[in-house]
């Protein structure tokens, strides 16, 4: 079976499926319909009077005609390709990475992996965000019977807890927008685009897995895929059930409290894992453990403190802080697509904006939510942090994005690996004070002038949670405020109206990525033998897809070092 990749098929956004079929037939000189798969679809909006979709498709044929072979030589947009599928077993054994025929019945899945040593106890995975879920899913399928522990609640109960907080109930520090089944991404836009490069097929495996558990099929080919928080909740629950069906366990309201180790002699490691202590619904319990995966997420601050006390090698890392900005979704759509009839049928528009200040600070849009909401994403009492969230439909009245500024360890007051975390905490406390316990909000014109806002303008805030008019200049360092103002003024040149006086700002956006990196070696092991740092919280990912990919890579690393064998 031959597969032909056809790139650069350009059609109006209002095209029909039949028009795409005919375009594919023309490219391969076929007079009959051919079976094909859409590989990628992106929007070309450079010409506002002629909006177009650009497709890449793969055609499947038993044989390739001489005419098509001739076109292959003359047209760089038509190439022969191979369909490659990710295979966990092959990645571990080194047989054939991303082979076209996954060895799902190989000896590996029967527990017959020869390298490494047998585990006496199932691996424990801390956290059920994308890194923990994908790590647990692949280990469970491979027979490792992993135990996933999650400090928060199952997604159904978690959503009720979050909505109660947004309605004015006290914050639950153990279950909120940051903590609970699915991790922080479950209460966001569910964006799946990533900047990482991966030739092994892991990214495709992540998307395919999401689809198999209920995500829309278009995430396999749209240029900037997103699931939406409402759909992602079902996907997460289905993944949990699949892990349990494959022999794993998922323990909710179970928090990692301590890690027991012993000194490691004649080794590069500082110690070796013995067991972990967890608090399960208020009761302390010790679990014997030889393999611990730390998929803790970027907001597990008490866990960072625990690791620091227990001698784990941590280093501070750069991240970004800033504010959320809201505009009417229709304004952003017209600026990006124009006012043609074809623009009317398109969904809410996104944007990606960057600017560098004369002082060398990077200012950029982050986690842009077309037709979305701003949410109170706090996780510690007495502090305020915000994030963006969209449902699958992306049909809310406003569009929002974080406008953030890079900060580095040189900007943090104090020293040590947790200085960035304390930097976040200090400014989140300032935001809490400014808003008197609610999300502080300000119009851009007042922000520029340095005065508190007294009234709203023409943009009605769309915020999940209570908010209060305040002065956001009190919520961030002066150099960050100055950079944000310069960035927004610059962005107005690309999107007219972006810097309008009544644009709504709120804050603070402080959880862009982990402020800490948990060091690991090439085998994905920390300085404590048996402990595998993983995902965004450990400092090795930035978003749902990259965290899921790192979860898969960590599962591979575990399997390379040990195989399941329980007494």
Structure, described:
- This protein has 567 residues and is α/β, with parallel strands linked by helices.
- The protein contains 14 helices and 27 strands.
- Strands 15-16-19-14-23-20-22 form a seven-stranded mixed β-sheet. A five-stranded parallel β-sheet has the order 8-7-6-12-26, with helices on one face.
- Helix 6 packs across helix 14.
- The longest helix has 18 residues, at 544-561.
- Mean pLDDT is 91; it is low at 96-115.
Question: What descriptive keywords fit this protein?
Answer:
alpha/beta, five-stranded parallel sheet, seven-stranded mixed sheet, globular, 567 residues
Unreliable segments of 5+ consecutive residues? 96-115
3D shape: globular
Residue share in β-strands: 25-35%
Lateral strand order in the biggest sheet: 15-16-19-14-23-20-22
Helical content stands at 25-40%
Secondary structure: elements and pairs:
Elements: E1 2-12, H1 17-27, E2 36-44, E3 52-61, H2 66-74, E4 78-81, H3 88-93, E5 117-119, E6 124-126, H4 130-141, E7 147-150, H5 155-166, H6 202-212, H7 229-245, E8 249-252, E9 254-263, E10 271-280, E11 283-288, E12 292-294, H8 301-309, E13 314-316, E14 319-328, H9 329-337, H10 341-344, E15 354-356, E16 362-369, E17 373-376, E18 386-389, E19 398-407, H11 419-434, E20 439-443, H12 444-449, E21 463-464, E22 467-469, H13 478-491, E23 504-509, E24 516-518, E25 528-529, E26 531-533, H14 544-561, E27 562-564
Parallel strand pairs: 5-27, 6-7, 6-12, 7-8, 10-25, 12-26, 17-21, 20-22
Antiparallel strand pairs: 1-3, 1-4, 2-3, 9-10, 10-11, 13-24, 14-19, 14-23, 15-16, 16-19, 17-18, 20-23
